[in-house]
Amino acid sequence: MIKIFEGGDITVYILPVNPEATMKGMGGFAAWTLDDNVILLMLAPSYQVGRQSYTTAHEYHHSVLMEAGLGYDSLLDFVVFEGS
C-alpha cells in the first residue's frame, strides 16, 4: 500500500545546471530542498530521463518532513533524513 504525503504549497525552481557543479554519478539531474516550501532542480542538457521522477519525489519527501518539523540536528539525523 502506498501512502501519499500531503504537504503545503511548494515552489519548484528548475534551472540549467551550473557548468562548475559536479554532476558525476547524478545522471545530469540534481536537486535540493532549500526549506519546507522551496525545491531547486538543476538539469544538465544530457540528463537521464526517469531520474527526475525519483529525485523530485525524494526532495518532496524532504519538504513534507521539514514542514512537519522533522528535520535533522545531528549527523545521524541527517543520514536517516537522507535515507528516508
In short:
Helix content is about 30%, strand content about 25%.
What is the secondary structure topology, with strand pairs?
Elements: E1 11-16, E2 29-35, E3 38-43, H1 51-67, H2 75-83
Parallel strand pairs: 1-3
Antiparallel strand pairs: 2-3
The tally of beta strands, per DSSP, is 3
Q: Tell me, rounded to a whole number, the average pLDDT.
A: 80
Cα separation of the termini? 17 Å
> Which residues form runs of ≥5 with pLDDT under 50?
none
Report what the structure shows.
- With about 80 residues, this protein is α+β, with helices and mostly antiparallel strands.
- The protein has one domain (about 10-84).
- The protein has helices spanning about 50-65, 75-84, and strands spanning about 10-15, 30-35, 40-45.
- It has a three-stranded mixed beta sheet, covered by helices on one side.
- A hairpin with a 2-residue loop joins strand 2 (about 30-35) and strand 3.
- About 10% of the residues are buried.
Which short descriptors sum up this protein?
alpha+beta
